[in-house]
Amino acid sequence: MSTQTQVRKASNAMIRNPISKVKDEHDLRHEDILLDTKLGQGHFGDVHKATFKNKPVSVKKCKATVDYILKNYNHPNIIKLIGVATDRHPIYIIMELVQGGNLLKLLRDDSKTLSVPEKIKMSEDAASGMSYLEGKSCIHRDLAARNCLVGTKNILKINDFGMSREEEYQIDSNTMRQIPIKWTAPEAMNYGYRMNQPPECPDAVWEWIQACWRKEPEDRPNFSEIKTAMKKIHKIFK
Q1: Whether 27 is catalytic
Q2: What pTM does this model have?
Q3: Dihedrals φ, ψ of 155, to 5°?
Q4: CA distance 187 to 214
Q5: What is the percentage of the chain residues whose pLDDT exceeds 70?
Q6: Residue 218 CB contacts under 8 Å (≥ 6 apart), including other chains
Q7: Phi then psi dihedrals of residue 107, to 5 deg
Q8: First to last CA, the chain
Q9: Would you say the C-alpha torsion 98, 103, 108, 113 has a positive or negative sign?
Q10: pLDDT tens for residues 17-72?
Q11: Contacts of 232 (CB under 8 A, 6+ apart)
Q12: Within 13 Å, how many C-alpha atoms sit on residue 141's CB side?
C-alpha cells in the first residue's frame, strides 16, 4: 500500500510508513509473460509454451495456490523453476522449456528409436535427479516416463511435481487408483503387477529393477546406489 492511504473508511487513520511485500527473483507478473500454444495438461492445470524476457519458457496455469517446492532446487536433471506469477488468477508457474517433449512419447515414436546405451544413460539421469530430491527429503510419488522431459543431447529432466511432498509418504486408500501399480512398493497394496523383463533390457539393469522390488524396504537400493550402478553399466554398453 502507498503512503497516505486510509486504513479503513470508518477511521481517519492514515498509513505513514507502508511495508512492502518482500519479493525475490522468483516473483513475476502476468504482464511479463506472453502465452503461446497449449502443450498439454499437468496435475495443476493446462501447460502452455510462452515467452518471458524474449526467451521461450513453459507455463503451468493453476486454478489455486500451490506449494512451489521447486523454488529451492537446482539440478541438471530436475526441471528448472524460473518464477511464479501470483498477482492475479490463474496463477502462472514459469518453467524452463524442454523442447524434446516427454520420454513416454519419445519411446513410442518409432521414427526416433533410442539405443540401449541412450536408455541406460536416461536411467542414470533419472536416478541422479531422484537422488538429489532424496537428499532434499522430497518424495516425487509419480516418477514415470510421462513425467520426464528430454532436453538437448537427450538429457533427461524430472518434471510434474503435482504429487510431490516434502514430508513422510502416506498412502490414501481413497486414491489408490492414481498410484502407478507396476512400480509401487509391495507393502502399498495386496496385489501388485510386475512386468516381465523387456526384450532389450540388459540383465545387469534387470537385476537392479528386481532389487527395487525386494519385499523388505531396507533391502532395496537408494537412488544414489542406482545412479552409480547405471553409470557403470552405461560405460560397458557405451
Answers
A1: no
A2: 0.74
A3: -70, 130
A4: 10
A5: 72
A6: none
A7: -65, -30
A8: 60
A9: positive
A10: 555 454 667 788 888 899 998 887 765 678 889 999 989 998 988 765 444 567 77
A11: none
A12: 21
4 within some domain: no
**Element containing residue 118 per DSSP (H, E):** helix 116-135
Q: Indicate if the alpha-carbon torsion angle 105, 106, 112, 114 is positive or negative.
A: negative
The Cα 157–Cα 80 span in angstroms is: 9
* Greater model confidence, 96 or 44: 96
Residue 148: beta bridge partners? 158
- Look at residue 168 and tell me whether its pLDDT is greater than 50: no
C-alpha cell at 55: 526467451
The active-site residue out of 24, 110, 125, 142 is 142
Residues 162 and 70 placed together within one structural domain of the fold: no
Residue owning grid cell 512492502 = 20
Does residue 111 sit within a domain? yes
Residues 109-164: pLDDT tens digits? 877 788 999 999 999 999 999 999 999 888 787 788 988 999 999 999 998 765 44
Report if residue 222 sits inside a domain.
yes
Cell 507396476 found at: 182
Quick one: 158 and 54 in the same domain?
no
pLDDT at 162: 55
| Number of domains forming the structure of the chain | 2
Whose cell is 508457474? That residue is: 93
